[in-house]
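LAB NOTEBOOK - FOLDING QUEUE
OPERATOR: T.R.
BATCH SIZE: 2
PURPOSE: Compare the predicted C-alpha cell outputs for two unrelated chains run back to back under identical settings.
PRIORITY: normal
REVIEWER: second-year student, initials M.K.

ITEM 1
FIELD SEQUENCE / FIELD STRUCTURE:
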Amino acid sequence: MLRAFVAVKLGREVESRIIELMAQLKEARADIRWVGHEAIHLTLRFLGEVEEARVAGIVEALKARVSRLHPLRIETGGLGAFPSLARPRVLWVGCKGNGLRELGEATEGAMVGFGFARETRPFTPHVTLGRVRSLRDWDKLRALIAHRATESFGASDVSEVILFRSTLTPEGARYSRLGSVVLEGGGRG
C-alpha cells in the first residue's frame, strides 16, 4: 500500500515567491510545521492508501477524463487558514483560474469512476504552506497574514496533472511522481 494524491505543480517563479513568503512568515516563530520547498503543489484529490497494483489504472482513469481539458493558467494569491484564522489548522495561499474548477471536477469524476468514494468537502484550490501545531505566537503570525491577505504571488501555466506518492517521514512528507497526464485540450472532461 502507498499514500497517493493527484496534484499540479506550479511554475518556478511562483514557487520562489511562495518560498520567500514562507521565510518571512517563519520570522513570527509560530508553532507551524512548514511544508518543504520541494513539496509546493496544488492538490486536486487526496486518495489516501492505495494498492500499488492500482496505480496504472488510476493514471488511465485520469487520462480518460483529464487529458481532454485544455492547459490552464493558475493565479496564486491571498493568505488564509483552514478552518479559519480564529481556529487555524492549515495555512494556505489561494489559487484560482479559468478551467481550475473544471479540472477539479474532472479529477473527482475520474476517481469516483475508478471506485473511490466521492469527496465530501468542497474543492477549495490552495497551496498548503504549513500545519499549525499549537497557537504559540499565533497572534504575531496572524498579524503578518492579515497584512498580506490579498497579495498576489504570480501565475503558473499548467499543462499536466501528476499522481504523487506521499511517504511520511519524521522530517515531513516526501513526494515522488507515480505518473502524469498531459492536458491536451479538444474536449470537456
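ITEM 2
FIELD SEQUENCE / FIELD STRUCTURE:
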Amino acid sequence: MGKASSVSVVLYTALALLAFAANSILSRIALHDGAIDAASFSTIRLIAGAVTLVLVSAASPRTALPVKGSWISAAMLFLYAVPFSFAYTLLSVATGALILFGCVQITMMGAAWRSGERPPALQWIGLSLAFGGLVYLVLPGLEAPSPAGAALMALAGFAWGVYSLRGRGATNPLAQTTSNFVRSIPFALVISLVWLPRFSAQRHGVLLAVASGAVASGLGYVVWYRALRGLTAVRAAVVQLFVPILAGVGGVIFLAEEISARLVLATILVLGGIALALYARDIKKLLRRSFQSLQGT
C-alpha cells in the first residue's frame, strides 16, 4: 500500500469513527430536551439515511439499483435504530455508546464461538473482562444508569451485531445497505403510528434527526466502506474501540455531561477486555516467542 493510499485509509477511518460517535451525540442532543420524540427521531433518521444512500448508490458507477436486500436484515436495522433512540432518552452519551459497542462486539464474538471457532484462554479472559465491565456499569447504585435505558441499548447492540454478521461477505455492501435502509422504513412508520398520541417534533429536533440519518449514518457508512478496503478485520474491530471514547468526549463538550468513576472503570474493563480478546492469538504468539528466546539464552 502506497503512502497516499495509507493516508486515505487513515483519513477515511477517522471520519467514519467521528460519524459513528456523532450518531450518539446527535441523538442525545435531540432527545435530551424533548426536541423530538424517540419514534419520530428513528423514522426520520432511517428515511434520511435511505435517501442519502440511494443518491450515493445511484451516482456510483459500480452500483446497479435496485439490489435485492433482506427483510430480516432490515428488521435488525430497525431493531437497532428504535431501541437506540429510546435508550438515549434515559442514558448519557458515553454510557449509551459503551453499552452499545460492548454488546455489538460480544454478540459478534459469541457468533464466532457458536460457529465452531474455539478461542484461546486469553480471548476468554478478555471477553470475561468486557462482560464484567458491562455488568459492573449497570449494577444498582447511585451512579448506575437507568435499567430500562441499559436494556434498550443492549438490545440495540445485539441487533446491530446480528445485522453486521448478516452483512459479512456482501458482494456490494453499499447497495445492499441501501436496500436494507429502504426496507426498514415500513417498520419505522408502524412504530411512529403506534407512538402517534405522544408525537412531538420541533424544528431543530427534526434537523438533528436528518443530520443523524443523512450524515452520521448514510455518509458515515459510505466513508467506512472506503476505509475497510485498507483495514484487516482485526484492525477494523480494534479502531472502533475509539468510538465510545469519542462519544464520551462529545457528551462532555456539547452536553456538559459528567464522567463518573464507575463509567471510567467500566470503560477500561470493556474496551481493554475487547482489545485483549481481539489480539489474544497475537499476544499468545509473542509470549511463546519470548519464552523460547529466554530458553535459548
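REVIEWER COMMENT (ITEM 2): The first helix runs from residue 3 to 32.
FOLLOW-UP: none requested
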